[in-house]
Design a protein that fits this description.
CATH superfamily: Ribonuclease Z/Hydroxyacylglutathione hydrolase-like
Number of domains: 1
Number of strands: 14
Order of helices and strands: EEEHEHEHHEHEEEEHEHEHEE
CATH topology: Metallo-beta-lactamase, Chain A
CATH architecture: 4-Layer Sandwich
Largest sheet: 7 strands, mixed
Number of helices: 8
Distance between the termini: 5 Å
Structural class: alpha/beta
Length: 257
Amino acid sequence: MTITVLGSGTSFGVPSINCNCPVCSSEDPHDDRTRASIWIDDGSTSVIIDTSTDFRRQALREKIPTVDGLLITHSHADHIHGLDDIRPYTFKNPIPVYGNEWTITEFRERFAYIFKKTQRGGGKPRITLNIITNDDLKTERQIDIKTLSFLPIPLKHGEINVLGFRIGNFAYLTDCNSIPRESFKKLEGVEYLIIDALRYRPHPTHFTINEAIEAARLIGARQTWLTHLCHDVLHKDLKQELPDGIAPAFDGLKIVI
């Protein structure tokens, strides 16, 4: 199974519009960060977690051939506003989309055009919406997409309930600043981890870099990558500062498990 980091940046992306800071002016390609999302592929099944605002650019860069399912962590714009660009993957069959009740409700409102009966032409992505319920989370019901099975992990993004996802010994926990006690139990045995680490300074809805390091330590991951990095963070400096077993994620990073 290969996990590809499609995007490792925050909601503004890096470089940020109208900014000339050292990170936004950096010539290091690792500091060119599109909005956060990942692609998981085992050779038979291809799943995207979050259709970021930059999904078209990401899909072209990685030459993603098919998409069999979409897992959505939450409905903030930077994580879902690339949805329309999945249209080329839905010509033959609709793609199932999974998210919590808030996220699916937001999908129906923000992408209402998809579900209205309209004239042919213009094009709309063909999707089916699937709610991950609280009962699903309590009973640890896995999401099966062809050959891959995912366990939703409840997280807190400020006051909002969002989801991370675990597959085998890998977990993806973006956009969070708190992991409930019950979720730590669901993460036992995770060896490979991608986790939110916005910046050095405190933030009301995201882990800081130090908080992410502590969360990774509590989870016990053998290797951790920090994602959703903003333009406060220069890749080469962060890479040198981090302890063994922890590294900054970057666009195009491939993790083979």
